Amino acid sequence: MINKKTKFKSGAVSFYIVVFLTLVFGIITLSFIRIVLNEAKEASNTDLYNSAYDSALAGIEDAKIALIKYHDCLSQGAIANAAAADNTCPRIVYEMEDSIKKQSCDVVQRVLGRDREGVDDADANPEGQRDVIVQETQSITDDGSAVDMEQAYTCVKITEENDDYLTALGSTDDTRIIPLRSADLQDATAIELSWYSTANGTNYKYMGNMFKRATSDAYTPPVLAVDIFQTDTNGGGQNCGGDNLTPCFSIGELSANNSDSSGTDHAELVFRPESGNEKNFISASTVLDKSDKHDNSPITVKCNSNGTYACTATIEIPPTFRKTDPATATTFLKVNLPYGRPTTDISARLCTGVDADACNGYTKLTGVQAAIDSTGRANDLYRRVEVRVELVDLYYPYPEAAIFLNGEDPTDKNFFVTRRCRKAEDGSPSSCANSGEV
Q1: SS3 helix, strand, coil % of the chain, rounded to 5?
Q2: Please, are residues 334 and 226 in contact by the beta-carbon 8 Å criterion?
Q3: Which residue, among 381, 387, 376, 382, has the nearest Cα to 154 in the 3D structure?
Q4: Span between the terminal Cα atoms of the chain, in Å
Q5: Where in the chain are the domains?
Q6: Is the pTM of this model over 0.85?
Q7: How far apart are CA 319 and CA 336, in angstroms?
Q8: pLDDT above 90 covers what percent of the chain?
Q9: How many helices (H) and strands (E) does the chain have?
């Protein structure tokens, strides 16, 4: 005969087991639901994030079209006219220049006449800016979706005068020709060149006075080759105009100093990074020396990891060959990665003065790069993207080497395999003064 007390205990155990398992499965179910909801929320946020980014990119692409139309109109000699008809060149020039001057958010809408949606409430929208819808489906009924992303770009600004020129060099694109154009180019006394930003690498360290890799996949600041090209505005003689604006030079002036070695139109400098905190000031006399192709010794540049760029050099600009003002149309900076790696960001600025071996003022570069600032939206999530686009063709073929022919003489070549630097004087080989073991 089973005791009632025993039966009660057996039933209580079963009850507790059922309650415990119910709690466990309930917790598991709730946790699973929470995970699913969080993942769904993350997926939705990611979708909105990417959609807002796509909207900003759409604004950038439209800004590029607006810039192409604007510069095409300028090339045709169009002059700004606010009273001109829509979509005509005078009106396009006016809308672009007025928008840039005011830093208006609706430059694309004004130049391209994009459809706009928004409110005209001056308090909520003081600039009268209207969003440009970029999504394909305009309402929830178009595709049966229950959610309307409302993708649009809300603000696009364009600037054609910038404090610096920004670019990047790498193994597949190791050379850049940078036009030095400025309304105040005659006031520029030096070039501030910086390279190898924190985005390129931060894992390098110093041992002694040389860079060493901290890890196998880290890179150190690269060697950089820099050419400076400039010509006179007007110096008289052959190939020169009489308006003080026409670039003036002969081919021979791009390979030598003038008679008293006080001016040059071309110099090539090779910067070799080395650890240190000293300022890197390259004087005009040093630049003049580097126009002599016999002096091919690299210049040591002290670099460190204290700023945005590891290496910065201030290059004093020497007088032109004929010692007039440099011509904006034919003044260039060529930067090159001789070894093609590592990928490095480049920043170039024009200095209006040098104090304590560093720039104490800058002049803006005009018509070299356009800065496009675009804000995109998807529902109530916004993303902002800023890019630089080239306003001149920098990808024309540029020879990395050339052969010099002297009159009717045949081409003579001397080849040497040596551990020391070699040079040739009138075809006769001799050792370089700066030679050393390598």
Answers
A1: 25, 30, 45
A2: yes
A3: 376
A4: 104
A5: 1-160+371-402, 165-363
A6: no
A7: 23
A8: 16
A9: 4, 19
